[in-house]
Specification:
Order of helices and strands: EEEEEEEEEEHH
Number of helices: 2
Helix content: under 10%
Strand content: 15-25%
Shape: globular
Distance between the termini: 27 Å
CATH topology: Immunoglobulin-like
CATH superfamily: Carboxypeptidase-like, regulatory domain
CATH class: Mainly Beta
Largest sheet: 8 strands, mixed
Number of strands: 10
């Protein structure tokens, strides 16, 4: 059994959904959450014209989320079709834009972001207008246009269908060979740019990891091993695809805050 928690903004109290038991089957409890149906591809996990991502990290994915949100999933390496941990943030739609809530979730090979049971939509107990931000440990973060969350309803955000699904800066999404769109890979240092600096990180890591299979942030192509193939990924992204988060607040690119 996996257990999930989400962080609330310090100024807003967390809520706990408590099911009310009733012997009267005619009583229907009102909905308590809004649901998020999010689709995203990772460039590193898509090969050629495939429309499903690789699950090559299976067996080495940590049971504790890597983003410090506080989520544990002991079954993560046995839940079918898991690509990796992924982070979802809800940002204030009004100015100033800022992060309000964070979730660590699972990314499935079909692009669905789900809760740690491997099938359920993410849910949130606060209605409102938000930007949906998706972050991954070695891909460029992306932000949606403003969306509205309503209790009892499902809000769909699909970043795979067109280049304008993500906002901000120069071409936030990469046009994949399969015709869809995905998050740019090769963003190791989370400075809102994919550059030689990220490539150098991979070069430096080759020696330190010693070609031993594992779960490494500088394993840009997500095949469990850091080698020369990882040093080339940043150069495969055209300069026009750099700095997709230009203009965001300082530090907003990192998934670790």
């Amino acid at each position: 059994m996996c257990y999930s928690f989400f962080f609330c903004n310090l100024l807003i109290s967390c809520t706990k959904n408590v099911k009310k038991e009733s012997t009267d089957e005619s009583i229907v409890e009102p909905p308590t959450h809004a649901f998020l149906d999010i689709n995203v591809y990772l460039q590193a996990a898509i090969s050629g014209t495939n429309t499903e991502m690789s699950t090559g990290l299976t067996g080495v994915i940590p049971t504790n989320d890597p983003y410090g949100v506080g989520v544990t999933c002991p079954d993560i390496n046995t839940i079918p079709d898991v690509v990796d941990w992924i982070k979802v943030e809800l940002w204030r739609a009004e100015i100033p834009k800022e992060k309000l809530y964070s979730f660590s979730a699972l990314l499935l090979k079909n692009g669905k972001i789900v809760d740690i049971d491997g099938k359920s939509f993410l849910k949130h107990a606060q209605e409102g207008n938000y930007h949906i931000v998706v972050k991954h440990r070695n891909h460029m973060a992306i932000m949606s246009a403003e969306v509205s969350l309503k209790i009892g309803s499902t809000t769909s955000v699909d970043f795979t269908q067109n280049a304008t699904a993500a906002i901000g800066g120069n071409s936030p999404l990469y046009h994949l060979t399969n015709g869809f769109y995905g998050m740019h890979y090769g963003e190791f240092n989370h400075d809102c740019d994919i550059s030689n600096t990220d490539g150098q990180e991979a070069w430096d890591a080759i020696t330190s990891h010693g070609f031993t299979p594992g779960y490494f942030n500088d394993d840009f192509n997500m095949d469990k091993v850091v080698n020369v193939n990882d040093t080339y990924v940043y150069s495969s992204n055209d300069p026009d695809y750099k700095a997709s988060l230009y203009g965001w607040p300082a530090g907003s690119c990192t998934p670790y805050k």
